[in-house]
Write a structure and sequence with these properties.
The protein is α/β, with parallel strands linked by helices. It contains seven helices and nine strands, in the order βββαβαββααβαβαβα. The radius of gyration is 17 Å and the shape is globular.
Length: 242
């Protein structure tokens, strides 16, 4: 399984924010986020610059879980990059985790793929990429724009949640008011609940997050959405291993 990094930290986003967690970050992504601020995604070393010498490379499931033993926390977060690019490895990893204990597994995904690995997942953290993430004037624009929203897959996640297979949260990166209109349109199509939606400011520095916080909390109050910050950036800055 292609791994960028393995580390122990606090979950910084969403409904399990603040929980001590072991992070398994896969390498490579099928999207290329680039915001109007000029920021790429906060883990560009798994997408834009995935050929990064600091990325770990092909790591066995046994080696991943050996590293986990050093921390032995309840929460395990599988993130990326985009972990669903490795459906067989992801299935085997999650199956092995559950065979060893009752860990709480969060899968963080952009929602473009669905697989049998989800039978082992406790929380699917969906982060569909909005139009504001599209890399205009780059060679990746068409790839990103044509792939960023997969309504069939998103509907499958929502239906699976409704039937009690796993919990979900819909976590959207917000740059401005236009993002809210797109979320509402997507909600009409997919049917997810307001109470499952988390709005999160776009930014890779504490100052950038602070500049958007009042605007976004206002959206949350108006539309009855939840707010989530990015604790890892507020506490440690946009660094690896956090």
């Amino acid at each position: 399984m292609q791994i960028s990094e393995l580390f122990y930290s606090l979950q910084g986003e969403g409904k399990r924010s603040g929980y001590p967690s072991f992070f398994i970050r896969t390498n490579y992504c099928n999207l290329r986020c680039l915001f109007s601020s000029g920021n790429r995604c906060d883990t560009q070393y798994t997408s834009w610059t995935s050929i990064d010498s600091d990325n770990l490379g092909d790591i066995s499931i046994e080696s991943i879980l050996d590293e986990y033993k050093n921390y032995n926390c309840f929460d395990i977060v599988i993130t990326g990059g985009e972990p669903t690019l490795y459906p067989d490895d992801l299935y085997n990893l999650c199956k092995e985790i559950k065979s060893r204990g009752n860990n709480f597994i969060t899968l963080e995904t952009n929602g473009t793929h669905y697989g049998k690995y989800n039978e082992f997942i406790d929380l699917v953290s969906l982060s569909p990429k909005l139009k504001s993430s599209s890399p205009f004037n780059t060679k990746y624009y068409d790839m990103h724009e044509n792939s960023r929203i997969n309504p069939v897959v998103l509907k499958t996640y929502n239906d699976s949640h409704i039937h009690g297979f796993f919990d979900v949260q819909w976590k959207f990166v917000i740059t401005g008011k236009e993002d809210i209109s797109e979320i509402l349109e997507l909600q009409k199509e997919i049917g997810f609940k307001n109470s499952d939606v988390y709005l999160m400011p776009e930014g890779i520095t504490p100052e950038e997050l602070s500049a958007k916080r009042e605007m976004i909390t206002g959206f949350c109050k108006e539309y009855k959405f939840n707010y989530t910050d990015r604790l890892q950036i507020l506490i440690w800055g946009n660094k690896r291993g956090t």
